[in-house]
Amino acid sequence: MNTDTVLQLKFTEDNEAGSNGLASEIARRIRRSVTYMAEHLDQPLQVSALAAHANVSPSHYFALFKQQIGRPPIDFFIRLRMNHARDLLDTTSCSVKEIAASLGYHDQFYFSRVFKSVHQMAPTEYRRRNGKPNVAEPDNGRSIKPLLSFDGGMGLPENRAIPQSRLNPG
Protein backbone atom coordinates (compact mmCIF):
# COMPACT_ATOMS: atom_id res chain seq x y z
CA MET A 1 0.00 0.00 0.00
CA ASN A 2 1.27 3.45 -0.85
CA THR A 3 1.61 5.16 2.50
CA ASP A 4 2.02 8.57 0.84
CA THR A 5 -1.64 8.38 -0.19
CA VAL A 6 -2.67 7.37 3.31
CA LEU A 7 -0.69 10.15 4.89
CA GLN A 8 -2.39 12.89 2.90
CA LEU A 9 -5.25 12.80 5.40
CA LYS A 10 -4.31 15.76 7.53
CA PHE A 11 -0.58 15.95 7.06
CA THR A 12 0.39 18.19 4.23
CA GLU A 13 3.77 19.80 4.23
CA ASP A 14 2.10 23.21 3.89
CA ASN A 15 0.12 22.69 7.09
CA GLU A 16 3.17 21.48 8.99
CA ALA A 17 5.35 24.34 7.78
CA GLY A 18 3.03 26.81 9.50
CA SER A 19 2.78 24.80 12.71
CA ASN A 20 4.79 25.33 15.85
CA GLY A 21 7.46 22.80 16.79
CA LEU A 22 5.26 20.79 19.18
CA ALA A 23 2.40 20.42 16.68
CA SER A 24 4.89 19.40 14.00
CA GLU A 25 6.45 16.80 16.31
CA ILE A 26 3.02 15.38 17.17
CA ALA A 27 2.19 15.16 13.46
CA ARG A 28 5.50 13.33 12.82
CA ARG A 29 4.77 10.84 15.59
CA ILE A 30 1.30 10.13 14.26
CA ARG A 31 2.66 9.89 10.71
CA ARG A 32 5.14 7.24 11.87
CA SER A 33 2.26 5.34 13.49
CA VAL A 34 0.23 5.45 10.29
CA THR A 35 3.25 4.26 8.30
CA TYR A 36 3.71 1.40 10.77
CA MET A 37 0.03 0.46 10.45
CA ALA A 38 0.20 0.46 6.64
CA GLU A 39 3.30 -1.76 6.72
CA HIS A 40 1.79 -4.26 9.20
CA LEU A 41 -1.73 -4.83 7.93
CA ASP A 42 -1.41 -8.58 8.53
CA GLN A 43 -0.67 -8.23 12.24
CA PRO A 44 -2.83 -7.34 15.22
CA LEU A 45 -2.64 -3.71 16.24
CA GLN A 46 -1.45 -2.89 19.76
CA VAL A 47 -2.32 0.71 20.56
CA SER A 48 -0.14 0.47 23.67
CA ALA A 49 2.87 -0.43 21.48
CA LEU A 50 2.15 2.48 19.13
CA ALA A 51 1.84 4.81 22.14
CA ALA A 52 5.15 3.57 23.55
CA HIS A 53 6.82 4.11 20.18
CA ALA A 54 5.42 7.67 20.15
CA ASN A 55 6.65 8.09 23.74
CA VAL A 56 3.23 8.99 25.18
CA SER A 57 0.67 7.21 27.33
CA PRO A 58 -1.97 5.11 25.54
CA SER A 59 -4.78 7.51 26.50
CA HIS A 60 -2.80 10.53 25.33
CA TYR A 61 -1.84 8.72 22.12
CA PHE A 62 -5.51 7.89 21.47
CA ALA A 63 -6.46 11.56 21.87
CA LEU A 64 -3.57 12.80 19.69
CA PHE A 65 -4.31 10.27 16.98
CA LYS A 66 -7.99 11.12 16.91
CA GLN A 67 -7.18 14.84 16.83
CA GLN A 68 -4.75 14.44 13.91
CA ILE A 69 -6.62 11.82 11.85
CA GLY A 70 -10.21 12.33 12.90
CA ARG A 71 -10.75 8.67 13.87
CA PRO A 72 -9.61 6.40 16.69
CA PRO A 73 -6.51 4.34 15.85
CA ILE A 74 -8.31 0.98 15.73
CA ASP A 75 -11.04 2.32 13.43
CA PHE A 76 -8.41 3.85 11.16
CA PHE A 77 -6.44 0.58 11.08
CA ILE A 78 -9.53 -1.44 10.19
CA ARG A 79 -10.27 0.97 7.33
CA LEU A 80 -6.67 0.67 6.10
CA ARG A 81 -7.04 -3.10 6.08
CA MET A 82 -10.39 -3.02 4.30
CA ASN A 83 -9.12 -0.54 1.70
CA HIS A 84 -6.19 -2.84 1.03
CA ALA A 85 -8.61 -5.77 0.78
CA ARG A 86 -10.61 -3.79 -1.78
CA ASP A 87 -7.40 -3.17 -3.75
CA LEU A 88 -6.60 -6.91 -3.68
CA LEU A 89 -10.12 -7.75 -4.85
CA ASP A 90 -9.64 -5.31 -7.74
CA THR A 91 -6.16 -6.37 -8.79
CA THR A 92 -5.76 -10.08 -8.00
CA SER A 93 -7.64 -13.29 -8.53
CA CYS A 94 -7.14 -14.34 -4.90
CA SER A 95 -10.12 -15.80 -3.10
CA VAL A 96 -11.76 -13.92 -0.25
CA LYS A 97 -10.34 -16.52 2.12
CA GLU A 98 -6.79 -15.87 0.84
CA ILE A 99 -7.22 -12.11 1.09
CA ALA A 100 -8.62 -12.42 4.61
CA ALA A 101 -5.67 -14.59 5.67
CA SER A 102 -3.16 -12.18 4.12
CA LEU A 103 -4.62 -9.42 6.29
CA GLY A 104 -4.47 -11.45 9.49
CA TYR A 105 -8.10 -12.62 9.59
CA HIS A 106 -8.33 -16.35 10.30
CA ASP A 107 -12.11 -16.37 9.82
CA GLN A 108 -13.19 -15.33 6.33
CA PHE A 109 -16.77 -14.82 7.49
CA TYR A 110 -15.72 -12.36 10.19
CA PHE A 111 -13.53 -10.64 7.59
CA SER A 112 -16.55 -10.40 5.27
CA ARG A 113 -18.65 -8.80 8.02
CA VAL A 114 -15.93 -6.22 8.72
CA PHE A 115 -15.52 -5.54 4.98
CA LYS A 116 -19.28 -5.04 4.65
CA SER A 117 -19.36 -2.66 7.64
CA VAL A 118 -16.75 -0.47 5.91
CA HIS A 119 -17.79 -0.77 2.24
CA GLN A 120 -21.53 -1.46 2.60
CA MET A 121 -21.29 -4.71 0.61
CA ALA A 122 -19.71 -8.12 1.03
CA PRO A 123 -16.34 -8.74 -0.65
CA THR A 124 -17.83 -11.21 -3.15
CA GLU A 125 -20.49 -8.66 -4.09
CA TYR A 126 -17.84 -5.94 -4.40
CA ARG A 127 -15.81 -8.14 -6.75
CA ARG A 128 -18.89 -9.09 -8.76
CA ARG A 129 -19.85 -5.43 -9.23
CA ASN A 130 -16.33 -4.41 -10.17
CA GLY A 131 -15.76 -6.94 -12.93
CA LYS A 132 -13.43 -9.51 -11.35
CA PRO A 133 -15.65 -12.62 -11.66
CA ASN A 134 -12.86 -15.04 -12.68
CA VAL A 135 -12.37 -16.34 -9.13
CA ALA A 136 -13.79 -19.77 -8.34
CA GLU A 137 -16.06 -18.86 -5.43
CA PRO A 138 -19.68 -19.97 -5.36
CA ASP A 139 -22.39 -17.61 -4.16
CA ASN A 140 -22.17 -19.00 -0.62
CA GLY A 141 -18.70 -17.42 -0.28
CA ARG A 142 -16.89 -20.74 0.21
CA SER A 143 -13.83 -21.18 -1.88
CA ILE A 144 -13.49 -24.36 -3.92
CA LYS A 145 -9.75 -23.87 -4.19
CA PRO A 146 -7.43 -26.03 -2.06
CA LEU A 147 -7.09 -24.90 1.54
CA LEU A 148 -3.83 -23.54 2.86
CA SER A 149 -1.84 -26.03 4.87
CA PHE A 150 -2.52 -25.82 8.58
CA ASP A 151 -0.24 -26.39 11.51
CA GLY A 152 -0.95 -28.65 14.45
CA GLY A 153 -4.67 -28.86 13.76
CA MET A 154 -5.11 -25.43 15.37
CA GLY A 155 -6.67 -23.93 12.24
CA LEU A 156 -3.92 -21.36 11.81
CA PRO A 157 -2.40 -20.91 8.35
CA GLU A 158 1.33 -21.59 8.29
CA ASN A 159 1.85 -18.80 5.80
CA ARG A 160 -0.62 -15.98 5.55
CA ALA A 161 1.15 -14.37 2.62
CA ILE A 162 -0.46 -14.56 -0.78
CA PRO A 163 1.73 -16.44 -3.26
CA GLN A 164 3.41 -14.16 -5.82
CA SER A 165 1.83 -16.11 -8.68
CA ARG A 166 -1.61 -15.09 -7.35
CA LEU A 167 -0.67 -11.41 -6.99
CA ASN A 168 0.40 -11.05 -10.61
CA PRO A 169 -2.42 -12.56 -12.64
CA GLY A 170 -1.70 -12.90 -16.26
SSE topology sketch:
Elements: H1 3-6, H2 13-17, H3 21-39, H4 47-53, H5 58-69, H6 73-91, H7 96-102, H8 108-119, H9 123-129, E1 150-151, E2 156-157, H10 164-167
Antiparallel strand pairs: 1-2
Helix pairs in contact: 4-5, 6-8
What is the N-to-C succession of helices and strands? HHHHHHHHHEEH
CATH topology descriptor of the largest domain: Arc Repressor Mutant, subunit A
Class from secondary-structure proportions: mainly alpha
Corresponding CATH architecture of the largest domain: Orthogonal Bundle
Kindly report the average pLDDT value.
76
How far do the termini sit from each other?
A: 21 Å
Question: Could you characterize what this model shows?
Answer:
The protein is an all-alpha fold. The protein folds into two domains: 68 residues, no CATH class; 91 residues, Orthogonal Bundle (Arc Repressor Mutant, subunit A). Helices cover 56% and strands 2% of the residues. The protein is built from ten helices and two strands. Strands 1-2 form a two-stranded antiparallel ribbon. β1 and β2 form a beta hairpin. α4 crosses α5. The chain is elongated and about 50 Å long.
Concise account of the structure shown:
The longest helix has 19 residues, at 21-39. The protein has helices at residues 3-6, 13-17, 21-39, 47-53, 58-69, 73-91, 96-102, 108-119, 123-129, 164-167, and strands spanning 150-151, 156-157.
